[in-house]
# Entry
Amino acid sequence: MNNLDLNQKIINNIVRQLRINPLDEAQRKKPKNVLLISADYLPKDVSNVALQCKSLADGLAERGINVHVISVDDWKAGTTVEMGAVKVHYVGNTIKAYSPLTWALTVGMDVCRVAADIYHNEGNIDLIHAHDWMMFPTGINLQFALKRPLIVNYYSLQHHRTPGVSNGFTEAVKQIEWRGSTESRRILVNEDWMKRELMNYYSPPKDKVNVIGPQAEDWTKDIVRDYSWVLKNWWGEEENIDTKGGNPK
# Structure
């Protein structure tokens, strides 16, 4: 018996004596509980964000992942609705907001509260997936508070929505979009041109941005692959939240 065989035998004995399941480490790198946060969601909203988030939630649930969605509906605030295998938690905004910026920052308080309830009462959250810039500040806060990785989805950029405009509002939104690109663990966009625009304006690591959209066949399989890559690197770095890029294996 050579030294490698002897070392492996010793390790196996230790694992057996400690009753450690060798699959546990692998399982923690696979998403089991995913939190999607999106201001828009069906049936209240019919925007591209709402449609894609609903399609993603259903696709993840079909793959055996426990999916929680937090979305905004003032009429349903405080309720949880089960849509098939997906739990949709509704929040409202009791603070009168004067712009999309103040609305996004104030509604985030209730989103964080509900996310904390899910985390503590319903069995953990493996990762957070924030859709569009309005949910980026909340997603960043949850990443730090829950010590769980954040994935962000860009659907447009402020540079596109208000071309040539420079004021306090537009600059603040651009800062939020930039923070989303730097603080998140993975950036998702639907098309190649959006990746190029994101690279041009905010300069994240190129291999941190992945193009996965609902136009691709079996696209939720690719999303789950990215989720697993994020978790693998997250736990591999012992929950060090310094952002790094990289391609999924």
User: Anything to note?
Assistant: The first strand starts at residue 33 and ends at 38.
